[in-house]
Amino acid sequence: MDAYDSGSDVSREAEEAAARKPQAPPAPEAVPDASPVPSGAPAPEPRTGVAALSPRYQIGAALALAVVAVAVCVHLGMVFLHVAPSNTVTKTHGEAIDDWIYPEFEQNWKLFAPNPLQQNIAVQVRAQIRTADGGSRTTGWYDLSAQDGRAIDGNLVPSHTQQNELRRAWDFFTASHDSDNRAVGERGSLSETYLRRIVVLRLERGGANGADGVVERVQIRSRTLNVRPPEWTTEKVSSQPVFRVLPWWSVLPGEAEGDTK
Q: Looking at CB atoms within 10 Å, which of 36, 188, 203, 228 has the fewest?
């Protein structure tokens, strides 16, 4: 009787303890996907690039690409005609081709057959100035090439004018004149005008004419000096400069102001 009562008490205490123990909240019910993806079908990939744009912007992008493509084709065609041998197209449209190529896109063969310069050529100029009181004076020689060199030295992005304007003008003159400074082609007079205009503008900008003076005539010369050979060679070259002096040129009205008429 005592053993039975004892077992009943233990069972009753276990039931009461289980009733006092907190119950875990019920698990939430699974909500079915509103847009289930059919099994076996790949998920659509997001659009990228031009396809991601709206139709209006797609049309704009297509037009921009078309313009770039046309410009590239025209440029390649102009370069090809510029370096190609003389033909009917270049004879008929040579001026248009030159206007497109020069000066930014000039082509030559120096990249494939380089010919390093072996001489330093400096272009110098002096002028006759008419002063405000009616007198006249002659300036000393201005080394224009040295001025360009100082402007280029240490300049990470020198301008095309600083690098090539004066040098190309002198090359143009020497190519169209003989050793006696006589024109040998139809472009001789043009080369003289071009070179004279450049040096007159340089003199004016440099203040060579003074406060009220006027540049009446200019004289140009070149100073050519051989580049010294390397120390390991036995080659001997002259170290004396050679001068080529041009006659005095009268300055035409308007050239000091850059008038091209």
A: 36
Query: If you write DSSP's letter for every residue of 78-119 in order, what string do you get?
Result: HHHHHHSPP-HHHHHHHHHHHHHHTTTT---STTTS-----E
Amino acid type, 111: L
Residue 120: its H or E element: strand 119-130
pTM for the model stands at: 0.57
Cα 66 → chain centroid: 24
Q: Which residues of 38-47 are buried (b: 16+ CB within 10 A; e: fewer)?
A: eeeeeeeeee
How far apart, in Å, are the Cα atoms of 44 and each of 37, 41, 47, 49? 11, 9, 9, 16
Alpha-carbon span 211 to 208, nearest angstrom: 9
Reduced to 3 states (helix: H, G, I; strand: E, B; else coil), residue 183 is strand
Please report which helix (H) or strand (E) contains residue 205, including its range.
helix 188-206
Q: Both tokens of residue 36? A: 């289930």
- Residues paired with residue 143 on neighbouring β-strands, in sequence order: 124
